[in-house]
Amino acid sequence: MILGTTQALPLAAQVLAYTSQRSKPAVASEPATQMKLVDALIHLKKHYKADILFEESMMSDVVVTNFNLDKNRSAEYNIEQLLKHTNLVLRKVRDNAYMILPRRPQIAPISAPQPTGTINGQAEIRAKVADMLIKGTVTDATGEGLPGVNVLVKGTAIGTNTDVNGKYEINVPAAESVLIFSSIGFQKQEIIVGQRNIVDVKLATETATLDEVVVTALGIKREKKALGYSISEVKGEELTQARSTNIANSLVGKVAGLNISSTATGPSGSSRIVIRGNGSISGNNQPLIIVDGIPINNDNLGSVAIGANRDGSWTGSDRGDGISSLNPDEIESISVLKGATAAALYGSRASNGAILVTTKGGKADKGIGVEVNSNFLAEDLLFKTYKDYQYEYGLGSNGVKPTTVAQTATRNSFGGRLDGSNAMSYDGVERPYVAAKNNLRDFYNVGTTFTNSIALTGATEKVTYRLSMNDLNNKGVLPNNTLRRNNFALNTNGNLGKNLSFVANVKYINERNHNRPRVNDSPGNANFTMYVLPTSLNVDVLKNAQTNAAGNEIVWSDNQYTQNPYFATEKFQQDDHKKRVIASFEPKYNVTDWLYLKGRIGFDNFNYRYKAIEPYGTGYVLRGSYTSSLRDFTEINKELMAGINKKFGEKYALNVFVGGNMMKQVTELNDVSANNSFNIPFFYDVSNIDPAARTVTEAYIEKRINSVYGSAEFSYNNYFFVTATARNDWFSTLAKGKNSIFYPSFGVSFVASEAFTMPAAINFLKFRGSWAQAGGDTDPYNLSLYYSLSGAHLGSALAQINGTRVPNSGLQPLTSTVSEIGLETKLFNNLLNIDLALYDRKTTNDIVSATISQTSGYTSALFNVGAIRNRGVELLLSSTIINNKKFTWDASFNMGFNDSEVQKLYGDLQTLRVDQSRPGSSFIHQDIGKSYSRIKGYDFKRDANGNIVYNSQGLALAGDIKDFGSGVSPYTLGLNNSFSYKGITMSVLVDGKFGGYIYSGTNALAYRFGLHKETLEGREGGVTGAGVTQSGEINTAKARAQAYYSNWYSAIATPFVYKSDFIKLRQIILQYTVPTRFLGKMPFKGASISIVGRNLAILMKKVPIIDPEATYNNSNAQGVEFAGTPPTRSYGVNLNLKF
């Protein structure tokens, strides 16, 4: 609540009048009464749950009569009616937050008001004429004129305030006079007049004046100072200026403790979001995504799960997740609830935290407001040439230049030295034997993204609304890869009667993807071919020699699965189409001014269709293959809540609510697949599939959770807050008697700076602490055996056990216990702001999938045995370093550190293998006593002194498995600087991660095929490895370079494990906002244009060739990459117009 602020205003601006007796009665209103204006405003605040900021002393004697509260109208309307016949005006700060300011006097300058009586309800004012006339304009940091700013000559009662455009005029006694500029919500500024006649001023925002309001669990808005836990909020405009097609990627570097990894699968790929470390060994570790109070499905619909094959091969494409489909233009803010305390009211599904997406609503402006946003981005490869590749030797093996077609059938670049002479190509044509350094530039496109949106906002007498439409049209850097997405949204808010209001939202998303990039060595992955293309093979040759006369693929190498990249992108077909509806309806009934009832029904449904064709004539599957998948998902949440929000006297307040939720999820699957099965060439329809080769799978999956919850917040004098919450969930996925779990939480917040007098250097000081428990369940159908029909015998279908995991009917919910302490302080007149948090999170009874002997007929089993602990620190520093009338420099720095430790696995098990890389020499493990996601792999065989051991051919031998480190970086940081000069603002974001490792399969490929520059040694005379023989003597054997380096690929991991540390220039935004004074004769209310860039440069990295953030899935197996889409950067322009 923001009431009765004590910030002093110039007496000259505190001219008030008593209201006249001409107020008209309103319809559907409360009876007219006579009361003080202050009391009337407090009444409005309670009714609308609004923040109203004013100087109480300005209106202590003002009385309003015959005022009728019209509950069918907005807060803004009723406040304006109250102020209609006063010298006060209303200024809207943000949605549901207002300031009341003195109306600009009609005469200037004026002396302090000295009422000597009243004439027609107006106080008499004595004006004093001064000696020097000073003019000027007062603006905010963006150059917008500020109305209602108080301008006072220091030491006198001479003052005025600015008009609607921020302009003012004032007479001052002398050149030595000091002007004081002040306004609620901005920092006060003092300026000596001197010999100037024009004094322009820029005011900086006063961060400590307005109590910040944030969106918390269940969509409830609360003052940030009342929270006993850490919460971070990102405003919607930060997502649209330098936008990403997946809004999760727009959060990178902006929130302490938030670790986001993007898959190397193009613009429509998914992301992995982890808050404060991984809390489950083999289960879900991502937060719950909530849109306008409705949980949405964020599953990856086609993840690249290397564990599916246990060798990391042939794993298809990443088909995106739920958050990647959201439209950033619709978003008002994103709140990151970091711990179990923050998200406790969401129960088990938010045990890893929650991300709350709040979309924009309607506004009660005059007429219909129109906002248009148009954005263009170009996307290009960050590296046009692989600087870590060698360009001295060409295609061939063992130092020999190919002179026959048979010798060209290789992927190796261990051929002869490139000398410009003619060499044979795989199509039988001789071409110059030279380096093809422009293959990346020639094959990949400059991608483009056009995004256009329009939003209409307005209001009727009872309803406010916002209707928005968005069109995104993307062409990827990979040829023939496109994304088209349309988003439609309607948000309404209204009153249905005296005490009944509602909020209703509906969103429709229509997304079509064509030829998403494949990853790993999946057939059809053009990226893989481009990584291994021999040095001397020009990609244009492949473009012109794809198929033979019969239309069959011409295989260019000795491996038919490494395909011509043009054949892969032009002949392979992969399409997916997702239609999604997210809707909610939330009625609220105010039983009294302190008791309310609220309901909510939420609906999330998507229909997903996927079809993939491997064409007829493909080298490895001559009759082609067909795959189609239909997935229909629906989640319905029904919720009912009752609450009390009441003050007791002047100092005590209580906010209590209780509620219940019923959640139901239904997933229906229908898959059809057939391999080597098309009867008629090049006719790709399911009717053309050989029936004997067709496999059809259907599934119905249902899950339910029933819940009750409650919260109670007690506050004393608006500086001491105690909050307790509780929730109980009952799961359908667990057995009766073991399917219930209770989650308590407790938090305390103490604002010391409002309780005690602080030193002048401390403007704000808050201490906070919290404790909570959360839990989690498992997927459906893990308790018992279930069956399916497959194949036929003698005309009848055969029944079989479905699944390879042993069921466990004794599974219980896991438990996650979290404690947190922190402080927030603002120092030196808000020059330095500090937010510090320390947390400790421990998961016990974790549901772990453990590998078992395949002789049992199964591959794994589930057990309640795991334990993992995360401890960490988060720090946020922000400052306005420079703030003068022309230039402002704001800076913020965030840092997160997470120390994870796996503490328990199944039985006596000390290590658990989670996944394996494609080359087969490295693995991802969870080890007791170690941090999460350990990269392990075969080291060189070494003697007692650490020397590498070689065989008689001079080849290094593989030794024991070595632990290289964690695939998850414990340190994350972000640094943002914003510079404003007049109407121009430039912001620069740099971020980084430190302390992690990565196994690079792409570098392993470069060594295997002689592409890496480190393989140049020994090309002419052979390589003698430094080390010893098996008998302990110094190694003197020379090995051919090809055998020496390619030997490491599948046998030894050590050369290909690197530190994944990096620092990136993540984004730059240069924006010009047209000042209000220039828009007077134009049809616009606001206009801005921005030049933007994202992922512009990697300032520091330690891994060659690849992006150190590269990963090809969003699973728990982090720290492995292999042949993903090359890193890209984007740059473009954004135009925003408001009518």
Automatic annotation (TrEMBL):
The keyword Transport applies. SUPFAM superfamilies: Carboxypeptidase regulatory domain-like, Porins. Residues 225-354 form the TonB-dependent receptor plug domain. One of its GO terms (cellular component) is cell outer membrane. InterPro entries: Beta-barrel_TonB_sf, CarboxyPept-like_regulatory, Plug_dom, Plug_dom_sf, TonB-dep_OMP_SusC/RagA, TonB-dep_OMP_SusC/RagA_CS, TonB-dep_rcpt-like. Keywords: Cell outer membrane, Membrane, Receptor, Transmembrane, Transmembrane beta strand, Transport. It is a multi-pass membrane protein. It is found in: Cell outer membrane. Belongs to the TonB-dependent receptor family. This is TonB-dependent receptor P3. It comes from Dyadobacter helix. The lineage of its organism: Bacteria, Pseudomonadati, Bacteroidota, Cytophagia, Cytophagales.
